[in-house]
Amino acid sequence: MIAHLAGARAPWLPGYRVKIIDGNCLEASDRRLKALREVPGGALPGKSLVVYEPAQGLVTDVFPCEDGHAQERSLFGAVLETVQAGDLWIQDRNFCTCAFLCDIDRRSAFFITRQHAGLPYEIVSPLRSSGRVETGQVAEQQVCVRDAQGTAHIFRRLRVKLDEPTRDGDGVLYLLTNLPRQKASTKRVARLYRKRWTLETAFQRLEAYFHSEINTLGYPKAALFGFCLALVAYNMLAVIMAALRGVHGEDTIEQEVSLYYIANELATTYKGMMIAIPEQEWGIFCTMSTAKMVATLLELAHKVRLRALRKSPRGPKKTQPKREGDPKCPHVSTAKLLMSRKDKPVAP
Questions:
Q1: Distinct helix (H) and strand (E) counts, the chain
Q2: Which of 89, 125, 163, 343 is the most buried (most CB within 10 A)?
Q3: Residue 261, H or E segment
Q4: How many CB atoms lie within 10 A of CB 294?
């Protein structure tokens, strides 16, 4: 439907099907189950690996696991079964294992991953500078990684010296990729990895707009099912966004329209619509052909008042002073602080 709506975003790397994969650990649930009431630690109802395709804005796969303590790597086998030739997988360092990377390479697929410190490799060529990107200096070299059978796989290894350290304090990032240099330059690879946060933003939206993690769902199957329902709702919203892009243009929708306002509009209007319009009247949408549904969505998209859904842009964040806790004064009164500011004389 998104293709018929002409609502896909510009491809990140033409000729490749870009997939971002990341893990999502469900938040600790309430202790409503008898087995949890006397356990001191937080009760984890499960985790999953989620695959997001940015061109369509869709979550296209999810690999759920009921064991909240299970390692993400225990799910790699199921992920590899979905890898197809021409895919480009973008992932963090938790996915950087010899077996996983070499298996992707063997399947004529591609990856961009942050290097894990425990990955064994052999240096094939020295680092050579490749200039600058927005976040720092970039250099590249070739390395060799061997799979369990001893077969050599030659990968590109990038070093990004950051102008500012990450939130974990890392000043240098090392990335690995098997993309051919003629298809993706060193700078482009670094910029593509930087866009990996798109999936983390999707997770934040799922929780904020769709309440994807319901703390009262203590049974793992129920918690994971609720999370997957939220993924389905997110994909339905992606179709709505595609219809808007098809009518109003990608730049207008991406830069000006707030996904929060759209989700809020749906949530607040739904109950009223179900009261005003009898349930059987909605049956027409079940039998619509794809072409008819696309035409209907485009017609409705023309009538949307974008002004009511515009983002509320904020200014650049100011550098905040470092705060240190005072054990003698663990709490403050907001009202008193505001009153004290009002009492201060205004500078001329």
A1: 9, 10
A2: 89
A3: helix 259-276
A4: 22
For 152-171, write each residue's pLDDT tens digit: 999 999 999 999 888 888 89
Looking at residue 107, the DSSP 8-state letter turns out to be T
For the chain, give every domain's residue range: 1-92+196-302
The structure's pTM equals 0.82
Cα–Cα distance measured from residue 42 to residue 25, given in angstroms and rounded to the nearest whole number:
12
> Which whole-number Å values give the CA distances from 264 to 23, 99, 206, 257, 261, in the listed order?
27, 43, 13, 13, 5
Sign of CA pseudo-dihedral 89, 93, 97, 98: positive
Separation in Å, CA 110 to CA 41, 90, 103, 105, 184 = 40, 9, 10, 6, 11
Q: What angle do CA 34, 38, 42 make, to 5 degrees?
A: 95
Residue 210: other Cβ atoms inside 10 A: 19
CB-CB contact of 250 with 9 (8 Å): yes
Q: For residue 245, give the 3-state DSSP assignment.
A: helix
